[in-house]
């Protein structure tokens, strides 16, 4: 386990950002609790990567965005090693915010290559309550060169795969060619 990676969790109001973190990290369910908007919160979790190593991630749970407030405060971008963008499959406006959020990240991120994943929450809803279908979300994600997962807090296993993927991308295995090759020998006299 190396350094702690900082992950900014961002999305529209009421999309379930806090519920995702509570369920994925602590296995807590907030289904029966009343909705309380988050101003800002921090979670720390040890996440197993796809390689089997364990990485420490610090998640910054941000206040929800809406039609009037479509970007993160600038200080989040200076901290970010990665992002989780959340929308609700039951709320088309939260899905439409993804474009503004992604532009904000691209414009303000401090590092060139910052891993971003997209979570479509509340995938357990019945079809008639769905406002965003998976094909639409996948087309948008493909245009932005991102990957999207549909998740819900009833099934914790659905939450773990994308977070493991993000942890693996935040702390990639060092390539064997990253060190210069050293050779021993004498210079030939010509």
UniProtKB/TrEMBL annotation:
SMART domains xref list? RAB, RAS
For bias type Polar residues, the affected ranges are: 170-181
Which parts of this chain are annotated as the region Disordered? 170-190
The record's keywords, sorted A to Z, are: GTP-binding, Nucleotide-binding
Q: Which domain of life is it from?
A: Eukaryota
Q: Which InterPro entries match?
A: KBRS, P-loop_NTPase, Small_GTP-bd, Small_GTPase
Task: Extract the GO molecular function terms from the UniProt entry.
Answer: GTP binding; GTPase activating protein binding; GTPase activity
Span of the signal peptide:
none
One GO biological process term is: Ral protein signal transduction
Q: Which NCBIfam families does the record match to this protein? A: small_GTP
> Which family is it part of?
Belongs to the small GTPase superfamily. Ras family. KappaB-Ras subfamily.
Q: What is this protein called?
A: NF-kappa-B inhibitor-interacting Ras-like protein 1
Taxonomic source organism: Halocaridina rubra
Point out the gene that encodes the protein. Answer: NKIRAS1
């Amino acid at each position: 386990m190396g350094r702690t990676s900082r992950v900014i969790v961002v999305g529209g109001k009421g999309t379930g950002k806090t519920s995702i973190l509570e369920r994925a990290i602590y296995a807590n369910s907030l289904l029966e609790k009343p909705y309380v908007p988050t101003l800002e919160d921090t979670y720390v979790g040890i996440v197993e990567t796809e390689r089997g190593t364990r990485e420490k991630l610090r998640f910054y749970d941000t206040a929800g965005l809406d039609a009037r407030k479509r970007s993160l405060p600038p200080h989040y971008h200076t901290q970010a090693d990665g992002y989780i963008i959340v929308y609700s499959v039951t709320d088309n406006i939260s899905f439409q915010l993804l474009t503004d959020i992604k532009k904000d990240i691209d414009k303000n991120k401090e590092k060139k290559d910052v891993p971003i994943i997209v979570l479509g929450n509340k995938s357990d809803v019945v079809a008639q309550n769905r406002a965003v279908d998976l094909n639409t979300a996948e087309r948008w994600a493909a245009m932005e060169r991102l990957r999207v997962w549909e998740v819900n807090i009833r099934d914790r296993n659905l939450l773990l795969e994308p977070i493991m993927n993000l942890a693996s991308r935040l702390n990639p295995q060092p390539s064997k060619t990253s060190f210069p090759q050293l050779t021993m020998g004498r210079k030939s006299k010509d």
